[in-house]
Design a protein that fits this description.
With about 325 residues, this protein is α/β, with parallel strands linked by helices. It folds into 2 domains: about 160 residues, Response regulator (Rossmann fold), CATH 3.40.50; about 140 residues, Response regulator (Rossmann fold), CATH 3.40.50.2300. Helices cover about 45% and strands about 15% of the residues. It is built from 12 helices and 12 strands. α6 links the parallel β6 and β7. The longest helix has 17 residues. The relative contact order is 0.14.
Length: about 325
């Protein structure tokens, strides 16, 4: 897997090296944009937003991240490589709120500004944080689940993975909402699905069995990102429980949107990934131009249900046209 990641990134690094400062290329600012991973649909939309901002603002971006969202070592190495290449700026979605502190500090010491997006980072070495208010987004999910639970006042939380600040904050917001409804018992809140659909599916199967979901003892579920939401959905379908247990997830893909239409997922809390990518690069450009940037920029969140799924605003969120920016 590491070898494949290196091969995938070779073209980007060669293009970067060919147009680095002093190589005779025009004097455009070159900004490294480093996502948590490159396989989820969410990151494709972030990439499109970053490209859109770069074209409008006259800068170049290099998009490079780990293949999977649990490859912290790879992400650290990518940050270090762009520091060594003397990028104009780095726009980073950190896999760990602690693990990237050192590399970001090293970038600042090298005179390279960093804007963090999607998931927060400890310390003050980065210039701005562009993301959804994830605590509020998790609270939105929890309030909706509480509203639709009906008579069965039990729920579980399938967490994502330790060290991910964005999902930890969503989980925190969800549990805050549950505490505001003391009639609801949270039966489990300490199980982690991990970075892939496969690991989330395996954990979900065990969790549903442990909570006697098939016996009707579970009312509702919340999962805080695309991979955990889809992994739990697969487990519910395999157990014949999809549509029978109230279910709120987070993020969108074609399969998850179809599940909302089917009634297998009651609601999805959606960010606007294209907007996140656009604002993250735009914030970096403002910083490079010497403008004052806000320390935190909230990009918003929307609750999507079968009732509002076909409205124009929601359609733009769940099925944005990325072809003008990604050429696919």
């Amino acid at each position: 897997m590491r070898r494949r990641t290196c091969v995938l990134g070779l073209g980007a690094l060669l293009a970067w090296a060919a147009c680095r400062p002093g190589s005779g290329c025009p004097g455009k600012k070159r900004i490294a944009v480093i996502p948590k991973g490159t396989t989820h649909e969410f990151w494709r939309a972030v990439h499109a937003g970053a490209v859109k901002a770069a074209r409008e603002l006259g800068v170049e971006i290099v998009w490079k991240g780990p293949l999977k969202e649990d490859d912290l070592k790879s992400q650290i190495e990518i940050v270090q490589s762009f520091v060594a290449q003397k990028a104009s700026g780095i726009v980073l979605a950190p896999l760990s709120d602690k693990g990237l502190v050192g590399p970001v500090r090293a970038a600042r010491e090298a005179g390279i500004p960093v804007v963090v997006f999607d998931s927060d980072l400890q310390g003050d070495a980065h210039g701005s944080f562009v993301a959804t208010d994830n605590v509020a987004a998790g609270r939105l999910a929890g309030e909706h689940l509480a509203k639709i639970l009906g008579d069965k006042k039990t729920a579980i939380l399938l967490r994502y993975q330790e060290g991910s600040a964005s999902t930890a904050n969503r989980e925190r917001g969800f549990l805050e909402a549950m505490r505001a409804h003391p009639e609801i018992r949270v039966l489990s809140d300490n199980q982690y699905g991990g970075a892939t659909t496969e690991s989330a599916f395996a954990t979900s199967e065990s969790l549903l069995a442990a909570q006697r979901a098939a016996a009707g003892e579970l009312g509702g579920i919340f999962a805080p990102n695309e991979s955990t939401t889809f992994g739990m959905l697969l487990a519910l379908r395999k157990a014949g429980l999809a549509g029978k247990i109230r279910y709120v997830g987070f993020d969108a893909s074609d399969k998850l949107v179809a599940a909302v239409r089917e009634g297998h997922v009651d609601a999805l809390v959606l960010q606007d990934p294209l907007r996140i990518g656009y604002l993250a690069v735009g914030t970096m450009v403002r910083k490079l131009r010497g403008e004052t940037v806000e320390p935190r920029i909230d990009t918003g969140a929307t609750l999507v249900t079968r009732e509002n799924l076909e409205t124009p605003a929601v359609r733009q969120l769940v099925a944005p046209d990325l072809r003008p920016w990604l050429g696919e």
